Amino acid sequence: MSDRTVSGDQPEPKKKELSLSLFLGPTADVQTSIGKIYLYPMRVSDFSRFEKIVADEPMARFREVLPCVASLSTTSKIEKDREPLAPELVAQLSNADVELVAEAYAVSSALQTARSGSEDRSALPRVDGEVATSYVDRLLKKQLEDHANDMRQIRDKMLASTGGIFDQVRKSSALLGSTLTNFERLSRSISTPAAMPVFETKHLELTNHMAEQHARLARERAEELEMVRLTGQMTAQSAKTLQDLAEAASTLLENLNERDQRSDRVTRIQLWIAVGSVVVAAVLSGAAFFQDKANNITNDKWQGELLSSISEGNRQRSTAEEENKKLKAKVEELSDAVSRLLAAKVSQSTTEETKSSASAARRVTSPVRTLPAP
Q1: 284 C-beta neighbours (distance < 10 Å), count
Q2: pLDDT at 77
Q3: Residue predicted with more confidence, 31 or 300
Q4: What is the pLDDT of residue 186?
Q5: What is the per-residue DSSP string for 257-271?
């Protein structure tokens, strides 16, 4: 007799374990002419393939989607990729099989969000009389659109988080570029001086010459001062641009540091969740072990009591058999005694009848003999 069960009456208790098959396994399965097909949710790489489908008919489009979401084998492990459905097997499926698979996929949890919607997404109900392949094609298109919107929102958030940092840098760079343009224009005007005007008045030649000389010197002085001013302005704006760049770099580094810290916190949280899952699994395993031990003790006790009951029943049955044998022997003895008594009584009756007959015969043969008075 086994120490775990008794004649198969009580099954061995099952141990409790944590399983991820609910999250990683198939969402539906369908029995077809080529065997049972397991259906999985679409992955990010599958959206790119679905986007490149050029067929217009829903049946043909869903046949091209099947290798992405269907498989003849089931898996629920992260490290094991699911085997896609081979194109030649897809070609062997009849249109009825494809519609059956599409019907199962349309009501599965893989398209739950696209079908029922969420807080920020609208639902996509099925039109009356619409075939399953057409409805699944519309659901997949909506899921692709929602995925693209999510990616766009993530990209916009990333750009918004860094775009404001460099706005001041762009502004300072534009001002510096404008000043540099003015400086280059002034430099070109100095390197190519304009032709001196010719005065026809002769009696004022000397005076005009002196005046022109002073004017030219004043103009050159003004241009030199303007160049000095522009140089100083460019220096100041360059320093401001460098300062803005330093501040932007500091802000960017702080944001990166903060993002790293958030990532570290998320990682720590995930590690704590993993550790908690291991602890919960250990607790459940320990509870299952103690429950198994208690069940074993209970089974052993029950087996002992059952063996004792069986032994007591066997003993009582043996005693009853002995008593039955004794009673049977007594009954046989009584039967023999009754038989003997009946035989003796019958013999006595026969003897008395014989004597009575003999006496009557004697009375008949002797009529002179008087009978005694009654």
Answers
A1: 14
A2: 58
A3: 31
A4: 63
A5: HHHHHHHHHHHHHHH
Asked whether 115 and 141 are in contact (CB, 8 A), the reply is: no
Structure-block tokens of residue 275: 């550790």
pLDDT digits (tens, 9 = 90+) for 56-111: 899 999 999 898 888 888 775 554 567 888 889 989 999 999 999 999 999 988 88
Tokens of 61: 């489009």
Confidence of residue 243 (pLDDT cuts 50, 70, 90): low
Q: Is 328 helix (H, G, I), strand (E, B) or coil?
A: helix
Rounded Cα–Cα distance for residues 27 and 108 (Å) = 6
Chain position carrying tokens 């899921």: 143
What's the full length of the chain, in residues? 374
Average pLDDT over the chain, rounded to whole?
Answer: 75
Given a contact cutoff of 8 angstroms between Cβ atoms, the answer to whether 38 and 317 are in contact is: no
Contacts of 173 (CB under 8 A, 6+ apart): 241
Tell me the pTM. Answer: 0.41
Phi, psi of 35 (to 5 degrees): 120, -175
The CA distance from 108 to 105, in Å, is 5
Element (H, E) at 62: helix 58-69
For residue 194 the two structure tokens come to 């304009």
Closest C-alpha among 40, 83, 84, 82 to residue 64:
84
Q: Given the structure tokens 């003993």, which residue do they identify?
A: 315
Q: What is the DSSP letter of 53?
A: -
For residue 237, give both structure tokens. Answer: 């704006």
DSSP structural state of residue 77:
-
CB environment 286-304: b (16+ within 10 A), e (fewer)? eeeeeeeeeeeeebeeebe
- Quote the distance between the C-alpha of residue 149 and its chain's center: 23
Structure confidence at residue 134 (pLDDT): 92
